[in-house]
Amino acid sequence: MELFDTLHEKGHEQVVFFHHEATGLKAIVAIHDTTLGPALGGLRMWPYQNEEEALRDVLRLSRGMTYKASVSGLNLGGGKAVLIGDPEEHKSEELFRAFGRFIGSLGGRYITAEDVGTSVEDMDYIYQETDRVVGVHRVHGGSGDPSPFTAYGTLQGIKACLQLKYGSDDPGQVSFAVQGVGHVGYYLTKYLREAGAKVFVCDINENRVERAVDELGAEAVPMEQIYDTDAKVFAPCALGGVINEDTVPRLKCDIVAGSANNQLESEEWGTVLEERGILYAPDYAINAGGLMNVAIELQGYDRDRAYRTVSTIYSIIRTIFGIARRDGIPSWQAADRLAEERIAAIAKVRRFYSKRFKDRLSGRRPHTTATNS
Ligand code: NAD
Questions:
Q1: Same CATH topology for 3-68+75-140 and 147-325?
Q2: How far, rounded to the nearest angstrom, does the alpha carbon of residue 215 sit from its chain's CA centroid?
Q3: Which of 56, 165, 261, 349 is paired with 367 by a 20 to 30 Å CA distance?
Q4: Taking a C-beta distance cutoff of 8 angstroms, is the pair 23, 101 a contact?
Protein backbone atom coordinates (compact mmCIF):
# COMPACT_ATOMS: atom_id res chain seq x y z
CA MET A 1 0.00 0.00 0.00
CA GLU A 2 1.24 3.49 -0.88
CA LEU A 3 0.36 4.89 2.52
CA PHE A 4 0.48 8.63 1.86
CA ASP A 5 -1.47 8.24 -1.39
CA THR A 6 -4.13 6.31 0.50
CA LEU A 7 -4.27 8.91 3.27
CA HIS A 8 -4.57 11.65 0.70
CA GLU A 9 -7.31 9.86 -1.24
CA LYS A 10 -9.54 9.26 1.79
CA GLY A 11 -8.62 12.45 3.64
CA HIS A 12 -6.96 11.01 6.77
CA GLU A 13 -5.01 13.38 8.99
CA GLN A 14 -2.80 11.07 11.00
CA VAL A 15 -1.91 7.43 11.52
CA VAL A 16 0.04 6.38 14.59
CA PHE A 17 1.66 2.99 15.16
CA PHE A 18 2.17 1.92 18.74
CA HIS A 19 4.59 -0.81 19.68
CA HIS A 20 5.43 -1.90 23.23
CA GLU A 21 7.60 -4.94 23.41
CA ALA A 22 7.13 -5.75 27.09
CA THR A 23 3.36 -6.18 26.78
CA GLY A 24 3.28 -7.30 23.13
CA LEU A 25 1.18 -4.27 22.21
CA LYS A 26 0.84 -3.67 18.49
CA ALA A 27 -1.78 -1.06 17.78
CA ILE A 28 -2.66 1.44 15.09
CA VAL A 29 -4.68 4.60 15.65
CA ALA A 30 -6.12 6.36 12.60
CA ILE A 31 -7.39 9.91 12.96
CA HIS A 32 -9.47 10.75 9.93
CA ASP A 33 -10.81 14.26 10.43
CA THR A 34 -10.82 16.57 13.45
CA THR A 35 -12.60 19.57 11.92
CA LEU A 36 -15.56 19.11 14.26
CA GLY A 37 -13.59 18.07 17.35
CA PRO A 38 -11.36 15.33 18.74
CA ALA A 39 -11.60 12.01 16.94
CA LEU A 40 -13.71 9.45 18.79
CA GLY A 41 -13.98 5.81 17.80
CA GLY A 42 -13.73 2.37 19.31
CA LEU A 43 -10.74 0.12 19.87
CA ARG A 44 -11.13 -3.09 17.87
CA MET A 45 -9.09 -6.14 18.94
CA TRP A 46 -8.83 -8.74 16.21
CA PRO A 47 -6.37 -11.46 15.12
CA TYR A 48 -5.58 -9.75 11.81
CA GLN A 49 -3.73 -11.97 9.33
CA ASN A 50 -1.17 -9.25 8.70
CA GLU A 51 -0.42 -5.59 9.36
CA GLU A 52 -1.82 -4.41 6.04
CA GLU A 53 -5.20 -5.94 6.84
CA ALA A 54 -5.20 -4.13 10.20
CA LEU A 55 -4.21 -0.87 8.56
CA ARG A 56 -6.92 -1.10 5.91
CA ASP A 57 -9.51 -1.83 8.58
CA VAL A 58 -8.53 1.10 10.79
CA LEU A 59 -8.46 3.52 7.84
CA ARG A 60 -11.91 2.40 6.65
CA LEU A 61 -13.47 2.43 10.12
CA SER A 62 -12.03 5.80 11.17
CA ARG A 63 -13.43 7.48 8.05
CA GLY A 64 -16.83 5.99 8.83
CA MET A 65 -16.69 7.56 12.30
CA THR A 66 -16.17 11.03 10.81
CA TYR A 67 -19.40 10.67 8.83
CA LYS A 68 -21.31 9.19 11.74
CA ALA A 69 -20.28 11.93 14.19
CA SER A 70 -20.99 14.61 11.62
CA VAL A 71 -24.55 13.54 10.71
CA SER A 72 -25.23 13.07 14.42
CA GLY A 73 -24.53 16.75 15.06
CA LEU A 74 -21.73 15.92 17.51
CA ASN A 75 -18.67 18.10 18.03
CA LEU A 76 -16.44 15.13 17.37
CA GLY A 77 -14.20 13.94 14.60
CA GLY A 78 -13.63 10.43 13.31
CA GLY A 79 -11.01 8.02 14.55
CA LYS A 80 -10.53 4.37 15.31
CA ALA A 81 -7.91 2.09 16.80
CA VAL A 82 -7.05 -1.53 16.11
CA LEU A 83 -5.11 -3.80 18.39
CA ILE A 84 -3.55 -6.79 16.65
CA GLY A 85 -4.21 -9.90 18.72
CA ASP A 86 -6.72 -12.54 19.64
CA PRO A 87 -9.15 -11.22 22.27
CA GLU A 88 -9.60 -14.77 23.59
CA GLU A 89 -5.87 -15.22 24.27
CA HIS A 90 -3.93 -11.98 24.35
CA LYS A 91 -5.80 -9.69 26.72
CA SER A 92 -4.17 -8.41 29.90
CA GLU A 93 -4.35 -5.43 32.22
CA GLU A 94 -0.86 -4.30 31.20
CA LEU A 95 -1.69 -4.49 27.49
CA PHE A 96 -4.60 -2.07 27.82
CA ARG A 97 -2.75 0.17 30.24
CA ALA A 98 0.12 0.41 27.74
CA PHE A 99 -2.44 1.34 25.10
CA GLY A 100 -3.89 3.94 27.50
CA ARG A 101 -0.48 5.55 28.00
CA PHE A 102 0.03 5.69 24.26
CA ILE A 103 -3.26 7.37 23.45
CA GLY A 104 -2.64 9.74 26.37
CA SER A 105 0.44 10.85 24.45
CA LEU A 106 -1.75 12.04 21.55
CA GLY A 107 -2.75 15.08 23.59
CA GLY A 108 -6.51 14.56 23.32
CA ARG A 109 -6.70 14.24 19.53
CA TYR A 110 -8.13 10.71 19.87
CA ILE A 111 -10.66 9.33 22.37
CA THR A 112 -11.15 5.58 22.49
CA ALA A 113 -14.15 3.36 23.31
CA GLU A 114 -15.34 -0.23 23.27
CA ASP A 115 -15.65 -2.09 19.97
CA VAL A 116 -15.52 -5.64 18.58
CA GLY A 117 -13.19 -7.70 20.79
CA THR A 118 -12.97 -5.19 23.65
CA SER A 119 -15.11 -4.73 26.75
CA VAL A 120 -15.97 -2.29 29.53
CA GLU A 121 -13.29 -3.97 31.68
CA ASP A 122 -10.66 -3.22 29.03
CA MET A 123 -11.82 0.42 28.93
CA ASP A 124 -11.45 0.56 32.71
CA TYR A 125 -7.78 -0.52 32.39
CA ILE A 126 -7.22 2.21 29.79
CA TYR A 127 -8.89 4.69 32.16
CA GLN A 128 -6.20 3.94 34.76
CA GLU A 129 -3.75 5.70 32.43
CA THR A 130 -5.78 8.34 30.58
CA ASP A 131 -9.17 10.01 30.66
CA ARG A 132 -9.32 9.90 26.84
CA VAL A 133 -11.68 6.93 26.98
CA VAL A 134 -15.47 6.59 27.10
CA GLY A 135 -17.69 3.58 27.73
CA VAL A 136 -16.05 2.97 31.10
CA HIS A 137 -17.84 1.42 34.04
CA ARG A 138 -20.57 3.45 35.75
CA VAL A 139 -18.40 3.91 38.88
CA HIS A 140 -16.03 5.98 36.74
CA GLY A 141 -18.86 8.09 35.32
CA GLY A 142 -19.46 5.78 32.37
CA SER A 143 -22.72 5.04 30.65
CA GLY A 144 -22.79 1.22 30.63
CA ASP A 145 -24.19 -0.91 27.79
CA PRO A 146 -24.86 1.28 24.72
CA SER A 147 -27.23 -1.22 23.06
CA PRO A 148 -30.53 0.09 24.52
CA PHE A 149 -29.58 3.56 23.22
CA THR A 150 -28.68 2.22 19.80
CA ALA A 151 -32.02 0.40 19.71
CA TYR A 152 -33.89 3.51 20.90
CA GLY A 153 -32.21 5.58 18.18
CA THR A 154 -33.05 2.93 15.59
CA LEU A 155 -36.67 3.12 16.71
CA GLN A 156 -36.63 6.91 16.17
CA GLY A 157 -35.22 6.42 12.68
CA ILE A 158 -37.87 3.80 11.91
CA LYS A 159 -40.58 6.21 13.05
CA ALA A 160 -39.24 8.91 10.71
CA CYS A 161 -39.40 6.40 7.83
CA LEU A 162 -42.96 5.38 8.74
CA GLN A 163 -44.03 9.01 8.82
CA LEU A 164 -42.61 9.59 5.38
CA LYS A 165 -44.02 6.42 3.87
CA TYR A 166 -47.44 6.22 5.51
CA GLY A 167 -48.09 9.66 7.03
CA SER A 168 -48.09 8.18 10.57
CA ASP A 169 -45.11 7.28 12.71
CA ASP A 170 -46.92 4.74 14.87
CA PRO A 171 -44.97 1.44 14.76
CA GLY A 172 -47.99 -0.31 16.28
CA GLN A 173 -49.76 -0.09 12.91
CA VAL A 174 -47.19 -2.08 10.94
CA SER A 175 -45.22 -5.34 10.93
CA PHE A 176 -41.46 -5.84 11.25
CA ALA A 177 -38.86 -8.46 10.36
CA VAL A 178 -35.89 -8.16 12.73
CA GLN A 179 -32.75 -10.03 11.66
CA GLY A 180 -30.67 -10.78 14.76
CA VAL A 181 -31.99 -10.46 18.30
CA GLY A 182 -28.70 -9.89 20.08
CA HIS A 183 -27.98 -6.80 22.15
CA VAL A 184 -29.62 -4.23 19.88
CA GLY A 185 -32.17 -6.45 18.10
CA TYR A 186 -33.60 -7.63 21.42
CA TYR A 187 -34.23 -4.09 22.68
CA LEU A 188 -35.58 -2.98 19.32
CA THR A 189 -38.03 -5.90 19.30
CA LYS A 190 -39.01 -4.98 22.86
CA TYR A 191 -39.74 -1.35 21.94
CA LEU A 192 -41.71 -2.42 18.85
CA ARG A 193 -43.76 -4.97 20.79
CA GLU A 194 -44.47 -2.37 23.49
CA ALA A 195 -45.84 -0.16 20.71
CA GLY A 196 -48.13 -3.04 19.68
CA ALA A 197 -46.35 -4.07 16.48
CA LYS A 198 -46.22 -7.57 15.01
CA VAL A 199 -42.55 -8.60 14.96
CA PHE A 200 -40.97 -11.55 13.14
CA VAL A 201 -37.48 -12.45 14.34
CA CYS A 202 -34.61 -14.75 13.40
CA ASP A 203 -31.13 -15.43 14.77
CA ILE A 204 -28.44 -18.06 14.30
CA ASN A 205 -28.55 -18.43 18.07
CA GLU A 206 -31.71 -20.38 18.89
CA ASN A 207 -31.69 -19.36 22.56
CA ARG A 208 -31.95 -15.73 21.53
CA VAL A 209 -34.91 -16.46 19.27
CA GLU A 210 -36.58 -18.37 22.09
CA ARG A 211 -36.03 -15.46 24.47
CA ALA A 212 -37.59 -12.99 22.00
CA VAL A 213 -40.57 -15.30 21.48
CA ASP A 214 -41.11 -16.13 25.17
CA GLU A 215 -40.36 -12.76 26.74
CA LEU A 216 -41.53 -10.38 24.02
CA GLY A 217 -44.17 -12.29 22.07
CA ALA A 218 -42.27 -12.11 18.78
CA GLU A 219 -42.86 -14.69 16.05
CA ALA A 220 -39.90 -16.81 14.92
CA VAL A 221 -39.09 -17.33 11.24
CA PRO A 222 -36.32 -19.52 9.80
CA MET A 223 -33.12 -17.56 9.18
CA GLU A 224 -33.13 -17.58 5.40
CA GLN A 225 -36.83 -16.68 5.20
CA ILE A 226 -36.36 -13.35 6.92
CA TYR A 227 -35.83 -11.66 3.52
CA ASP A 228 -39.09 -13.10 2.14
CA THR A 229 -41.16 -12.24 5.19
CA ASP A 230 -44.28 -10.27 4.48
CA ALA A 231 -43.48 -7.39 6.83
CA LYS A 232 -43.52 -3.66 6.07
CA VAL A 233 -40.13 -2.98 7.66
CA PHE A 234 -36.98 -5.09 7.41
CA ALA A 235 -34.63 -4.28 10.29
CA PRO A 236 -31.13 -5.79 9.87
CA CYS A 237 -29.62 -6.01 13.35
CA ALA A 238 -26.97 -8.68 12.85
CA LEU A 239 -24.47 -8.56 10.01
CA GLY A 240 -23.18 -6.21 7.36
CA GLY A 241 -23.61 -6.77 3.62
CA VAL A 242 -27.15 -8.18 3.85
CA ILE A 243 -28.56 -5.85 1.18
CA ASN A 244 -27.13 -7.46 -1.93
CA GLU A 245 -27.79 -9.12 -5.26
CA ASP A 246 -29.40 -12.19 -3.66
CA THR A 247 -31.58 -10.45 -1.11
CA VAL A 248 -32.89 -7.26 -2.77
CA PRO A 249 -35.13 -9.06 -5.32
CA ARG A 250 -36.70 -11.03 -2.46
CA LEU A 251 -37.58 -8.14 -0.17
CA LYS A 252 -41.31 -7.52 0.23
CA CYS A 253 -40.90 -4.62 2.64
CA ASP A 254 -41.43 -0.87 2.07
CA ILE A 255 -38.62 0.18 4.42
CA VAL A 256 -35.14 -1.08 5.34
CA ALA A 257 -34.13 0.39 8.70
CA GLY A 258 -31.99 -1.41 11.25
CA SER A 259 -28.93 -1.10 13.45
CA ALA A 260 -26.39 -3.25 11.59
CA ASN A 261 -23.26 -1.54 10.29
CA ASN A 262 -22.48 -1.58 6.55
CA GLN A 263 -25.84 -3.05 5.52
CA LEU A 264 -25.30 -2.35 1.83
CA GLU A 265 -22.89 -4.84 0.29
CA SER A 266 -21.96 -1.95 -1.96
CA GLU A 267 -23.50 1.48 -2.35
CA GLU A 268 -25.22 0.54 -5.61
CA TRP A 269 -27.65 -1.63 -3.62
CA GLY A 270 -28.85 1.49 -1.83
CA THR A 271 -29.63 2.95 -5.21
CA VAL A 272 -31.42 -0.24 -6.30
CA LEU A 273 -33.57 -0.12 -3.14
CA GLU A 274 -34.51 3.43 -4.05
CA GLU A 275 -35.45 2.37 -7.59
CA ARG A 276 -37.65 -0.36 -6.14
CA GLY A 277 -39.46 2.22 -4.03
CA ILE A 278 -38.02 0.90 -0.75
CA LEU A 279 -36.98 3.58 1.75
CA TYR A 280 -33.50 2.97 3.14
CA ALA A 281 -32.45 4.63 6.40
CA PRO A 282 -28.64 5.01 6.09
CA ASP A 283 -27.05 2.69 8.63
CA TYR A 284 -24.49 5.00 10.19
CA ALA A 285 -27.14 7.64 10.83
CA ILE A 286 -29.88 5.40 12.26
CA ASN A 287 -27.47 3.41 14.46
CA ALA A 288 -25.67 6.43 15.96
CA GLY A 289 -27.49 6.18 19.32
CA GLY A 290 -24.59 4.31 20.94
CA LEU A 291 -22.09 6.95 19.84
CA MET A 292 -24.34 9.80 21.00
CA ASN A 293 -24.71 8.09 24.37
CA VAL A 294 -20.98 7.66 25.03
CA ALA A 295 -20.29 11.18 23.75
CA ILE A 296 -22.39 12.52 26.67
CA GLU A 297 -19.76 11.04 29.03
CA LEU A 298 -17.34 13.72 27.88
CA GLN A 299 -19.60 16.37 29.45
CA GLY A 300 -20.51 14.37 32.58
CA TYR A 301 -22.93 11.54 31.95
CA ASP A 302 -26.64 12.24 32.22
CA ARG A 303 -29.01 9.46 31.16
CA ASP A 304 -32.00 11.71 30.44
CA ARG A 305 -29.85 13.96 28.32
CA ALA A 306 -28.55 10.89 26.48
CA TYR A 307 -32.10 9.80 25.61
CA ARG A 308 -32.99 13.33 24.51
CA THR A 309 -29.91 13.45 22.27
CA VAL A 310 -30.60 10.01 20.81
CA SER A 311 -34.18 11.00 19.98
CA THR A 312 -32.80 13.57 17.50
CA ILE A 313 -32.20 10.63 15.16
CA TYR A 314 -35.84 11.09 14.11
CA SER A 315 -35.11 14.55 12.68
CA ILE A 316 -31.70 13.52 11.33
CA ILE A 317 -33.30 10.78 9.23
CA ARG A 318 -35.95 13.23 8.03
CA THR A 319 -33.22 15.72 7.08
CA ILE A 320 -31.42 13.02 5.09
CA PHE A 321 -34.58 12.19 3.14
CA GLY A 322 -35.10 15.94 2.64
CA ILE A 323 -31.64 16.25 1.05
CA ALA A 324 -32.33 13.15 -1.08
CA ARG A 325 -35.49 14.83 -2.40
CA ARG A 326 -33.81 18.24 -2.79
CA ASP A 327 -30.89 16.87 -4.79
CA GLY A 328 -32.58 13.90 -6.48
CA ILE A 329 -30.13 11.39 -4.99
CA PRO A 330 -30.49 8.13 -3.04
CA SER A 331 -30.60 8.32 0.76
CA TRP A 332 -27.15 6.73 1.27
CA GLN A 333 -25.65 9.51 -0.80
CA ALA A 334 -27.76 12.15 0.95
CA ALA A 335 -26.35 11.03 4.32
CA ASP A 336 -22.80 11.43 3.02
CA ARG A 337 -23.70 14.85 1.66
CA LEU A 338 -25.18 15.96 5.00
CA ALA A 339 -21.99 14.87 6.78
CA GLU A 340 -19.69 16.54 4.26
CA GLU A 341 -21.72 19.77 4.11
CA ARG A 342 -21.59 20.14 7.89
CA ILE A 343 -17.83 19.57 8.02
CA ALA A 344 -17.25 22.04 5.18
CA ALA A 345 -19.46 24.66 6.87
CA ILE A 346 -17.72 24.35 10.23
CA ALA A 347 -14.31 24.42 8.52
CA LYS A 348 -15.36 27.75 6.98
CA VAL A 349 -16.28 29.15 10.42
CA ARG A 350 -12.95 28.02 11.83
CA ARG A 351 -11.01 29.58 8.95
CA PHE A 352 -12.90 32.85 9.33
CA TYR A 353 -12.14 33.15 13.04
CA SER A 354 -8.53 32.01 12.76
CA LYS A 355 -8.01 34.65 10.04
CA ARG A 356 -9.56 37.35 12.26
CA PHE A 357 -7.40 36.20 15.15
CA LYS A 358 -4.28 36.36 12.98
CA ASP A 359 -5.29 39.80 11.66
CA ARG A 360 -5.71 41.05 15.22
CA LEU A 361 -2.36 39.63 16.26
CA SER A 362 -0.57 41.21 13.33
CA GLY A 363 -2.39 44.52 14.06
CA ARG A 364 -1.12 44.40 17.63
CA ARG A 365 2.46 43.48 16.81
CA PRO A 366 3.96 47.00 16.65
CA HIS A 367 2.47 47.82 20.04
CA THR A 368 3.75 44.55 21.55
CA THR A 369 7.21 45.14 20.11
CA ALA A 370 7.27 48.67 21.50
CA THR A 371 6.32 47.43 24.98
CA ASN A 372 8.91 44.70 24.91
CA SER A 373 11.75 46.92 23.80
P1 NAD B 1 -24.78 -8.86 18.90
O2 NAD B 1 -23.62 -9.70 18.52
O3 NAD B 1 -25.17 -8.75 20.31
O4 NAD B 1 -26.07 -9.34 18.10
C5 NAD B 1 -26.05 -9.78 16.78
C6 NAD B 1 -26.98 -10.98 16.70
O7 NAD B 1 -27.07 -11.40 15.34
C8 NAD B 1 -26.51 -12.19 17.49
O9 NAD B 1 -27.56 -12.64 18.31
C10 NAD B 1 -26.12 -13.20 16.43
O11 NAD B 1 -26.34 -14.53 16.85
C12 NAD B 1 -27.05 -12.81 15.30
N13 NAD B 1 -26.63 -13.24 13.98
C14 NAD B 1 -25.38 -13.36 13.49
N15 NAD B 1 -25.43 -13.76 12.21
C16 NAD B 1 -26.73 -13.88 11.89
C17 NAD B 1 -27.43 -14.26 10.72
N18 NAD B 1 -26.80 -14.62 9.61
N19 NAD B 1 -28.79 -14.25 10.75
C20 NAD B 1 -29.44 -13.91 11.86
N21 NAD B 1 -28.84 -13.56 13.02
C22 NAD B 1 -27.50 -13.55 13.02
O23 NAD B 1 -24.49 -7.43 18.26
P24 NAD B 1 -25.24 -6.07 18.61
O25 NAD B 1 -24.42 -5.30 19.56
O26 NAD B 1 -26.67 -6.34 18.89
O27 NAD B 1 -25.12 -5.33 17.20
C28 NAD B 1 -25.94 -5.67 16.11
C29 NAD B 1 -25.52 -4.86 14.89
O30 NAD B 1 -25.66 -3.46 15.17
C31 NAD B 1 -24.07 -5.05 14.49
O32 NAD B 1 -23.96 -4.94 13.08
C33 NAD B 1 -23.36 -3.90 15.14
O34 NAD B 1 -22.18 -3.55 14.45
C35 NAD B 1 -24.40 -2.81 15.00
N36 NAD B 1 -24.28 -1.74 16.00
C37 NAD B 1 -24.37 -2.03 17.31
C38 NAD B 1 -24.26 -1.01 18.25
C39 NAD B 1 -24.40 -1.29 19.73
O40 NAD B 1 -24.62 -0.33 20.48
N41 NAD B 1 -24.32 -2.53 20.17
C42 NAD B 1 -24.05 0.31 17.83
C43 NAD B 1 -23.98 0.58 16.46
C44 NAD B 1 -24.10 -0.47 15.55
A1: yes
A2: 28
A3: 349
A4: no
Assigned superfamily of 3-68+75-140: Leucine Dehydrogenase, chain A, domain 1 (3.40.50.10860)
Q: Is the CB of 72 under 6 A from ligand 1?
A: no
Which of ligand 1's atoms lies nearest the C-alpha of 288?
Answer: 43
Domain ranges of the chain: 3-68+75-140, 147-325
Non-local (6+) Cβ contacts of 118 within 8 A are 42, 43, 44, 45, 83, 87
Q: Could you tell me if the CB of 179 is within 6 A of ligand 1?
A: yes
Q: Please, are residues 270 and 332 in contact by the beta-carbon 8 Å criterion?
A: yes
d(CA 320, CA 333): 9
CA distances from 114 to 111, 123, 125, 144, 170 (A): 11, 7, 12, 11, 33
Q: Which one is the CATH code of 147-325: 3.40.50.720, 2.60.120.20, 3.10.129.10, 3.30.70.360?
A: 3.40.50.720
Q: Can you give the pTM of this predicted structure?
A: 0.91
Q: What is the distance in A from the centroid of ligand 1 to the CA of 181?
A: 7
pLDDT in tens, the chain (373 residues): 788 998 888 999 999 999 999 999 999 999 999 999 999 999 999 999 999 999 999 999 999 999 999 999 999 999 999 999 999 999 999 999 999 999 999 999 999 999 989 999 999 999 999 999 999 999 998 998 899 999 999 999 999 999 999 999 999 999 999 999 999 999 999 999 999 999 999 999 999 999 999 999 999 999 999 999 999 999 999 989 999 999 999 999 999 999 999 999 999 999 999 999 999 999 999 999 999 999 999 999 999 999 999 999 999 999 999 999 999 999 999 999 999 999 999 999 988 887 777 777 777 655 544 444 3
Q: Which are the catalytic amino acids?
A: 80
Among 44, 67, 181, 183, which residue has the most ligand 1 atoms within 8 Å of its CB, making it the best to mutate?
183
